[in-house]
Design brief:
The chain is of the alpha+beta class. The longest helix has 24 residues, at 342-365. The radius of gyration is 32 Å and the shape is elongated.
């Protein structure tokens, strides 16, 4: 690395180059959005300075009126967007501008389809708004100076959007950032004052800062504000159009897509605040990252304070975007104060109820839209019943699952749907967890439920096993895993004939001898061997205790280096299965013991477990095949 006082040329990573190519060639049909993105970034920079100045008022002392300015030069073929916000130092420029989407870039590229129309919809999820400049510009120059630093500490970044960028120290008399776009030959439409004004009013009218341009008749003199500069959320709902709501969402969320839904409320009483909260239509790329960008923004009397997910919205609703504006908080509120502030707790509680109410309404009145929501955010919603005990029942009603009644992996069944279809005498909600839909659908534990026509919920998201460890009931009905604990379906009224019941009792009586032999053969490896109430087609299955973790989850935990409590499973057998009948006749103890181990191994594999001795399993399987073929 050369000295930071000289000009340096740096190369983009391969993925960044691919991403820039996509930006330039996929958004050609909506070129004007570059202005929205640059203004949105400038607005954020001003908000950050206003917050920083609460602790150090010297940062704004020389220029207290925050603003955004837009200029164009027909002769030089440039457009300049500048702000007097927080600005950046050299390291921040490299971090924020020299890198696109950071860890998200590779994930972004995995999702590319090759279809430009489809791929362009992904762009907004990966925080690459600044680079929309290259849709219209053949070169972009960024000049910035951080507030509080001297004029000669400023930095200039420049790139053609092809292979890399240059960065060098400069002198800049004012704080803040200016972005200069050197337009391509065919982009003359943007070198027009009326055109730029119309774009600003279309996309950025709601930005709560003055966006200024030179008056048309005085291009070198007086400035005029071209946007309303009103905080949109402070306006009455009947004065805001759907298009304005959507454009504000794109500004506050840095998203290219329209939101799926929103809720706008003014709360008055002991605490007064306004909320404008949005549900995105697409999940952001960092939904599962420990630290995320862009959440709910906190304002105090229209002054931006901070962007905070943890204290303003529970983690399972971390995808929510929007603003909360309080009249009751002090302007110098800190993150430490937020953690135990009653006003914040009240705002958070009220906002969660509004979001859950919005989702309930969507689920009831627009199932198709709710299905879209669930596809994007269903897995994180399943964290809700554990994290948010005060709203547990309401969140549980919003959850969706696949079911044995539906021949697909679509998660469309609500717990209310399930309870409404429960059979006479049924007092439990039956479910099974697995690491895939096929593993759940084909589990031997479902056999008796399919025979009796009892619905079972199929849970195959990794979060399900964790969640069900904390959830005991819904609507007065307890949950029971069909793969854990003892099973008693005797109280449930089904079409099973008296002849079937009589046959089962006879088999039970006849199987005492083989149960004894199996217990002896597997004594060190199982807790018990018993006849199964679950099986109708398979020879065996394993059953864990009620509080044990599913085998596939135990395996994942071990692979992650986590300690997993050891416990022995119960082996259940189907006394009417031909293999069990054949084993009853086997006189060779060594062969019987091998087959007993084979029954256990098969049952472990069907539950997603891993065998301690795979080679031994293959040997025993071959031995059985040879024996049965004779």
């Amino acid at each position: 690395m050369s000295d930071a006082t000289t000009k340096e040329t740096m190369q983009f990573e391969t993925e960044v180059g691919q991403l820039l190519h996509l930006m330039i060639h996929s958004l050609y049909s909506n070129k004007e959005i570059f202005m929205r993105e640059l203004i949105s970034n400038a607005s954020d920079a001003c908000d950050k300075l206003r917050f920083a100045a609460l602790a150090d008022d010297k940062l704004m002392a020389d220029d207290p009126d925050l603003r955004i300015e837009v200029e164009f030069d027909k002769d030089a073929r440039t457009i300049t967007v500048r702000d007097n916000g927080i600005g950046m130092n050299r390291d921040e420029v490299i971090s924020n501008i020299g890198t696109i989407a950071k860890s998200g870039t590779a994930e972004f590229l995995k999702n590319l389809t090759g279809d430009q129309a489809k791929d362009s919809h992904l762009i907004g999820q990966f925080g690459v708004g600044f680079y929309s400049s290259f849709i219209v510009a053949e070169k972009v120059t960024l000049r910035t100076r951080r507030a509080g630093e001297p004029a000669d500490a400023a930095v200039q970044w420049e790139s053609t959007g092809e292979s890399g960028y240059s960065i060098e120290p400069i002198t800049k008399e004012t704080r803040g950032t200016e972005v200069i776009l050197h337009l391509r030959e065919d982009e003359d439409e943007f070198l027009d004052g009326w055109r730029l004004r119309s774009i600003i009013r279309k996309y950025s009218d709601h930005v709560p800062l003055p966006i200024r341009m030179r008056k048309e008749d005085k291009p070198d003199g007086e400035w005029e504000t071209v946007n309303k500069a009103n905080a949109l959320w402070t306006l009455p709902k009947n004065e805001i159009s759907d298009e304005e709501y959507k454009e504000f969402y794109k500004h506050v969320a840095h998203d290219f897509e329209d939101p799926l839904a929103w809720t706008h409320n003014r709360v008055e009483g002991k605490y007064e605040y306004t909320s404008l909260l949005y549900i995105p239509s697409k999940a952001p790329f960092d939904l599962y990252e420990p630290k995320q960008s862009h959440g709910v923004k906190l304002y105090v009397q229209r002054v931006f304070i901070m962007e905070d997910n943890e204290n303003l919205m529970p983690r399972y609703l971390r995808f929510i975007r929007g603003v909360l504006d309080s009249n009751d908080l002090p302007l110098n509120v800190s993150r430490e104060i937020l953690q135990s502030n009653r006003v914040i707790e009240n705002m958070k509680s009220g906002s969660v109820k509004k979001i859950l109410g919005l989702l309930e309404s969507m689920a009831k009145n627009d199932p198709e839209k709710y299905a879209t929501f669930w596809k994007e955010f269903g897995k994180v919603m399943k964290e809700g019943p554990v994290e948010d005990s005060s709203n547990r029942e309401q969140v549980l009603k919003l959850l969706r699952y696949a079911s044995t009644l539906n021949d697909s992996d679509a998660q469309t069944v609500s717990l209310e749907d399930y309870v409404s279809r429960m059979k006479e005498g049924q007092d439990k909600i039956y479910y099974i967890t697995a690491d895939s839909y096929n593993a759940a659908k084909n589990s031997p534990h479902l056999e008796v439920f399919k025979k009796k026509g009892i619905e079972v919920l199929l849970m195959f998201d990794r979060v399900d096993e964790w969640m069900m460890g904390f959830i005991s009931e819904f609507d007065g009905k307890s949950f029971q895993s069909v793969a854990k604990g003892e099973l008693d379906l005797s109280k449930i009224k089904t079409e099973e004939s008296e002849e079937d019941k009589k046959k089962h009792k006879q088999e039970e009586k006849a199987a005492k001898k083989i149960l004894k032999k199996l217990k002896k053969a597997l004594d060190e490896k199982v807790e018990d061997v018993r006849l199964s109430e679950r099986l109708t087609d398979s020879p065996s299955c394993i059953v864990l205790s009620e509080y044990d973790m599913a085998l596939y989850m135990q395996q994942l935990m071990k692979q992650a280096g986590q300690e997993v409590p050891t416990s022995k499973p119960v082996l259940e057998i189907n006394p009417s299965h031909p293999i069990i009948k054949r084993m009853e006749e086997e006189k060779d103890d060594e062969r019987f013991n091998g087959w007993a181990q084979l029954l256990l191994d098969q049952a472990i594999l069907s539950e997603g477990g891993q065998l301690e001795d795979p080679a031994g399993f293959v040997h025993r399987m071959n031995d059985m095949m040879l024996t049965l073929s004779k």
